[in-house]
Amino acid sequence: MSNISTTLTEMLEIEHPILLAPMGSAAGGRLAAAVTHAGGLGLIGSGYANVDAIKREFAEAGNARVGIGMILWALDKNPGALDVALASHPPVVMLSFGDPSPYAGAIHDAGSLLICQVQSLSQARQAADAGADIIIAQGRDAGGHSGTMRGTMGLVPAVSDAVAPIPVVAAGGIADGRGLAAAITLGASGVLMGTRFTAATESLWNDALKTRVIAAGGDDTEQTRVFDIVRGTPWPEIYPGRVVKNDFFKEWHGREEELTAAQDTVGERYSGTSPEDVSIRAVWTGEGVDLVRGVMSAADIVEQTVDQAVEALEQGVRQSQRKTP
Amino acid sequence: MSNISTTLTEMLEIEHPILLAPMGSAAGGRLAAAVTHAGGLGLIGSGYANVDAIKREFAEAGNARVGIGMILWALDKNPGALDVALASHPPVVMLSFGDPSPYAGAIHDAGSLLICQVQSLSQARQAADAGADIIIAQGRDAGGHSGTMRGTMGLVPAVSDAVAPIPVVAAGGIADGRGLAAAITLGASGVLMGTRFTAATESLWNDALKTRVIAAGGDDTEQTRVFDIVRGTPWPEIYPGRVVKNDFFKEWHGREEELTAAQDTVGERYSGTSPEDVSIRAVWTGEGVDLVRGVMSAADIVEQTVDQAVEALEQGVRQSQRKTP
Fold first, then answer.
1. Which residues of chain A lie closer than 8 angstroms to B237, CB-CB?
2. Which of A290, A296, B169, B195 can bridge B136 by disulfide, Cβ–Cβ 3.0-4.6 Å?
3. Do A54 and A84 touch, CB atoms closer than 8 A?
4. What is the mean pLDDT of residues B127-131?
């Protein structure tokens, strides 16, 4: 298969510049290990600094070299979860949605690299100051939680310019090789993909969720807080989550205060529904979902993405004529 | 200088796959002519189907081959403006923000190509059905008016797949050659740039606006309806405009109903302010604005963009290794 070598692949000692987004609901140890075995780097999700999940999914990854992603506002409430994660000697710890600076020292002391995911240019500068080794520029095009302020297209080159020579990884709306090629030309050293991997064979998602994401289009998605409110997960309001607009979304989106007031009863009803009921349950999905067309193994996703990216770059060069100086 | 040949450059018989966004406030005949002379294609803005502006700016363009952009909901109120535009034999007519189908026949009969700008995948399919020769996929990353539903990164490949072989042009968050290269790898045949050209020497913008856009960053922008409300321009609510967040924005954004009720008095005060007062007046700006760093001629912008795009594509290929079959 083809490959693309960047600052990111060198720094992480991986073959392909593709990282698995550490999605709590999908990116368990099995999927993370599969992405790593395919030549990318798998990151397991840790939920809300959930120590049991961290131990379980690292164990599930076996001997595979996988990193971990942590949600900062949750880690702030349970900082000991970082020690549990570091005990598994992850090559990288990715921190998102808060201030990474209190944890940078411990991560570096443990010999791990610090990846900071940011949603704006000002956050990127703060992450660089905090000692990030790699910065993920995540646009609101992303599935699941992200910011509202910036789109991937303009954010990636701006962050790349601002934090050079720190390698930048593009996230949000990227689900195939064209997106990887675009990220590379925008100045990134690789991509973080979530939505595409939710439908991977090795994903923790159930079949109903995978079927829904394959059928969905980007026009069907929107950022919302209603699933955080109903589940009682105290996400900061500035980080809504992008989902497929289903019946539950349509009932409550725009009525957040009312839902907050009714959380007790509605929350109980919500958690009583089947995890396969995609008309009610959150289907976290990014705007790249039009490009997700079937269940494939993580290995096939990585290979297809890289092959397509190289083809897209070569096609671009074939269309180009260089100036003669 | 370098160049990139695509379906778009062939269809439009231009040298470079760069179109000027027909921004009412900036894209007069002078700027449109300059983009055309530089090897791209200039499109003049027609405001709200303003017949005087159409005649004046086509005259201002002199003998340069320039197209025109029209806002569909405004054209619906004054359909005769299309005949005025077609009398100047534009190579292309670009229609945005409404249903293009009533006008496709007249445009084709006049020998012009029909460009439809869309903000979602479903709109792209409708534009293809309406007979669009070229489709612009505009993400909410764009400056000025756009949709809210889709970001550029995921929209462009999805539209490209859906409407092939109709050429697709990417718009929103693109302000330099890295964005052009990314558009090409995403499957587009070129780009439509607005924000970068607002700061061009030949732009209609005054110096205060140009200075503001050069200083602004993408983090400083947001989509809002307040400037449409205060100016009494009846934009459909689904098409807000992205601006630099200034004092007027901060006073009224989120208080749209109140502003609507007070439009008489606040509108009079607004229009009484200096067009150079960037703390009050709308500074229409896209998220690519971090990449706009000075006033340059349109010719230099086009040349620099293409050179940088070719360099970005070649750099991507240098990092790639093709699979050996």
1. none
2. B169
3. yes
4. 98
Residue A90, pLDDT > 90, answer yes
Q: Would you say residue A215 lies in a domain?
A: yes
Share of chain B above pLDDT 70, in %: 99
* DSSP code at position B191: E
Does residue A169 lie within any of the structural domains? yes
**CA–CA min distance B267, chain A (Å):** 28
Chain A contact present for B2, CB below 8 A: yes
Complex ipTM value: 0.97
Q: Does A316 touch chain B (CB under 8 A)?
A: yes
> Residue B220 belongs to what H/E stretch?
none
pLDDT tens digits, one per residue of A13-38: 999 999 999 999 899 999 999 999 99
Q: Region B168-191: what's the mean pLDDT?
A: 98
Task: Say which residues have a Cβ less than 8 Å from residue B235's Cβ, sequence separation at least 6.
Answer: B73, B97, B145, B225, B228, B241
Do residues B233 and B197 both lie within one domain? no
Tell whether A212 and A71 lie within a shared domain: no
Contact at CB, A120 and B219, closer than 8 angstroms:
yes
CA dihedral B187, B190, B192, B198 (to 10 degrees): 130
Tell whether A242 is within 8 A of chain B (Cβ).
no
Q: Does the beta-carbon distance from A286 to B154 stay under 8 Å?
A: yes
Give the pLDDT band of residue A324 (cuts 50, 70, 90): low
- Which structural domain, as residue segments, surrounds residue A229? 207-271
Residue B282 inside a domain? The answer is no
Asked whether the predicted pLDDT for residue A241 surpasses 70, the reply is: yes
Q: How far is it, in rounded angstroms, from Cα B257 to Cα B261?
A: 6
- Give me the CATH number covering residue B58: 3.20.20.70
- Report how far residue A48's alpha carbon sits from residue B291's, in angstroms, rounded to the nearest whole number: 36
| Residue of B32, B37, B126, B15 lying closest to B85 (CA atoms) | B32
The pLDDT, as a whole number, for residue B325 is: 54
> pLDDT, tens digit, for every residue of B215-248?
999 999 999 999 999 999 999 999 999 999 999 9
CB atoms B321 and A310 under 8 Å = yes
Q: For residue range A120-145, list pLDDT tens digits in order.
A: 999 999 999 999 999 999 999 999 99
Are residue A22 and residue A149 in the same domain, yes or no? yes
- Same-domain status, A85 and A222: no
The answer to whether residue B122 neighbours chain A at the CB level (below 8 Å) is: yes
Please tell me the total count of domains within chain B: 2
Output the pLDDT for position B1: 78
Whether A280 maps to a domain, the answer reads no
Q: Supply A128's token pair.
A: 């660089």
Do A48 and A95 have their domain in common? yes
